[in-house]
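Title: [Solved] MBL fold metallo-hydrolase 3D structure

Original question kept below for reference.
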Amino acid sequence: MGIRFCVLGSGSTGNATVVATEEGKVLIDAGLSAKKIDQLLKERGMSASELDAIVVTHEHADHIKGLGAVARKYDLPVYANEKTWAELDRQIGEIAEENRCVMKTGEMLEFGSLQVESYGISHDAAEPVGYCFYHEEEKLSVATDLGYMSSKVKEKIQDSDVLVLESNHDIEMLRMGRYPWNIKRRILSDVGHLSNEAAGIGLVDVMTAKTKRVYLAHLSRDHNLMDLARLTVNSMVEERLASDDHRAKLMDTYHDRATEWDVLKDD
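Solution (posted by the thread starter after getting help):
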């Protein structure tokens, strides 16, 4: 079996995704409580004790809420770049020195047969990153918390078998919403979050005939709807692709439950 993954939770209330091969298992972020992560993994037939490591995208609370507790409970290595570690140290409590692992942005790690590569993204954090996962010819990319999809990000995530892509908000719902203007401006900025429209436009540039599925992730509970995100992203893609071009299937993620296991080799 090659790569399989499960989005345990996605959104402003907490983010965590598990990626696994037979020989390597990695958790991306731990933005849910340790108890919730244990529960969700158990529901998917796995224990956190099977994990080889946790890799961190950035230090915002919805990505690290349970990080310290999970790392300590299961004695897990935590990988993040130096600037992110400087922020984590103030938030997650004591981590055993041997488990404080610095991963330079752009570095490739190996956990058994699973290769993990980080890449820089634009977000209002110390040094935020996304991740690509490789096993033989398979590629899974995770790209959330993007202010915008830069050419470098597009280059990194292009030609993925499966992509987890931020589709955070509907622009008009956000503009009309209850948030104060300074927060709206931050979300709409180049260091904020990717809108449904921007996700669809960017997807056209990175989707290839190899790309089977795209999971729309990190949806705002206040300024988006799953059906609206799917409809808008699909509309942006339809406008820009020829009728005979390949189209990946759009998939849902949830803030309150895990997705089913996705096996990349499955068509």
